[in-house]
Amino acid sequence: MGDPKGFLKGKRQDGGYRPVCERVKDYEHVSVLRKEDESLDQAERCMDCGTPFCHWGCPIGNYIPEWNDLMAEGHWEKAFKLLNASNNLPEITGRICPAPCEHACVLGINDDAISIRENELGIIEYAFKKKMIAPEQPMVRTDKKVAIVGSGPAGLSCAMQLNKAGHDVTVFEKYDKAGGILRYGIPDFKLEKWILDRRIEIMEDEGIEFKTSVNVGSDYKAKELMKTYNAVCLAGGSRKPRDLSVEGRKLSGIHFAMDYLIQSNIKVSGTPVNAENEINASGKKVVVIGGGDTGSDCVGTANRQGASCVMQIEIMSRPEECRTKEYPWPTYPLMLKTSSSHEEGSEREWSILTKKFIGENGAVKKLECSRVEFINGPKDSCPVMIEIPGSTFEIESDLIILALGFLHPAPEGLLSDLGVKLDERGNVKTGEDLKTSVEKVFSAGDMRRGQSLIVWAISEGRKAAHFIDRFLMGETNLPNM
User: Fold this and answer.
1) How far is residue 481's CA from residue 460's CA, in Å, rounded to a whole number?
2) How much is the pTM?
3) Which end of the chain is more exposed for a tag (fewer CB within 10 A), N or C?
4) Which CATH number fits domain 243-404: 3.40.190.10, 3.30.470.20, 3.50.50.60, 1.10.260.40?
């Protein structure tokens, strides 16, 4: 390894952000890519642990200490090959993954964890810069045809793995361009779309076919899908949003977060949107209900659209800023997250219950809210939420974004037509081999496991490819993660 005492000599240094006054005027990436020599210094902090828990924290099992060591020694190409062996989309996870590996870092027990995510980004961008990445066609084709429905991270990862095995892979996407939630659900200031286009172009050159603007189950019938392909992988995500059924919900000016973000991303790409249906925060008092990452993306988008003010409210209590005993190392902790969007200007409030929406002439104008607290219930039960008496208050707002997460995939259409069984949560039910109740139909990603992290989606896609290849060929050399 580079320097066995490197973690004692250097402190963690995260990459910087562009100035707020500059970045809120555009949709370009907010982060500044770290310099190569800075990445080498940060890689030297890795302790090359005897038992590296970062592996345990990473759903795709990245070879983190190994490529940190190679990187610290300046062996960029070897580091890239190791990274590429386990992660199909490192240029994307290196930008938007919440890095559960870092929370499991052994150094994080008593110091700042290794900047694993940024090291990963440094490796893959160096590889692109030095042209280490080129399309690789499989040496032999099997003549087996596989359809993947959905081009998000699970679908893309599954497609890449199956193509390596020599199968003819077709990826279906209902929107105009491939990428799924990566393209339409994540703002450009977090993930510029040329990064996605760069990867998809490589996939096409490797022989993967993309059929966009095709809604399978509607434009392309399930019966035809089953007839044409030897295997099918359902990777359409979990897109049924959680609603807020309170008085005044039908007032205009209240929208689901994904509807807002999709429309904004389409407009930023240069494609016109219908002015009559446009959701625009310009000059408006915006309230985002929901304290997660999607809500944060809505805050950043509203600021860029010129909102007069933005408030984000959350029903849960304010998380602690440091790890608590309820989330001991190396588990992924519940901690306060302050994103680049929050730093650009917004107000945040916790323990807020939305009781009703108040409007004028059919349009929302206010929220009626109250403060709540959570008390411990009976042993081994969840905390109980109680409303604090006399805490009712109002918030003025003429644009409300519901960022409350997702329930399950939409059951109507393709899932109904195929007749796949759903589990008790409404997700596609599979066995351990990710096969559904319908022969030759598999499922992966959020559609199967529920709303989750990008690294879980990639892991699911790779795992599905393993079992699909084994189903088609009787055996497989593809990894099972």
Assistant:
1) 7
2) 0.95
3) C
4) 3.50.50.60
Residues of the chain short of pLDDT 50, as ranges, are none
Burial of 76 (0-12, 13-18, 19+ CB in 10 A): buried
Whole-number pLDDT of residue 2: 65
Instruction: Go through the chain and tell me how many residues it has.
Output: 481
pLDDT at 248: 97
Cα 123 to Cα 128: distance, rounded to the nearest angstrom: 9
Predicted confidence at residue 377, as pLDDT, reads: 77
Name, in order, each residue with C-beta under 8 angstroms of 131's C-beta and a sequence gap of 6 or more.
Answer: none
pLDDT value for 9: 87
Residues in Cβ contact with 108 at an 8 Å cutoff, skipping those fewer than 6 apart: 102, 114, 329
The answer to whether residues 273 and 383 touch, using CB atoms and an 8 Å cutoff, is no
Integer CA distances (angstroms), 388 to 8, 43, 312, 369, 428, in order: 49, 49, 20, 11, 39
**How many beta carbons lie within 10 A of that of residue 31, not counting itself?**
17
Q: What is the pLDDT of residue 465?
A: 98
Q: Are 319 and 353 in contact (CB under 8 A)?
A: no
Could you tell me the residue ranges of all domains in the chain?
6-129, 145-239+407-473, 243-404
137: Cα within 13 Å, side-chain hemisphere: 7
Note the pLDDT of residue 193: 98
| CA–CA separation, 423 and 140 (whole Å) | 38
Q: Residue type for 202, please?
A: I
Of residues 417, 411, 402, the one with CA closest to residue 429: 411
Q: What are phi and psi of 67, to 5 degrees?
A: -80, -20
Q: What angle in degrees, to the nearest 10, is found between the helix axes of 36-43 and 116-129? A: 140
Fold of 145-239+407-473: FAD/NAD(P)-binding domain (3.50.50)
Using CA atoms, how far apart are residues 295 and 315, in angstroms rounded to an integer? 13
- Closest listed residue to residue 255, CA positions, set 364, 402, 405: 402
Is the distance from CB of 374 to CB of 384 less than 8 angstroms?
Answer: yes
Q: How far is CA 184 from CA 198, 300, 461, in A?
A: 16, 15, 19
* Cα–Cα distance for residue pair 13/339, rounded to 1 Å: 17
Q: How far apart are CA 133 and CA 428, in angstroms?
A: 35
pLDDT tens for each residue of 390-406:
999 999 999 999 999 99
Domains 6-129 and 243-404 share a fold: no
**CA–CA dist 250, 357 (Å, integer):** 9
pLDDT of residue 382: 83
Structural fold of domain 6-129: Fumarate Reductase Iron-sulfur Protein; Chain B, domain 2 (1.10.1060)
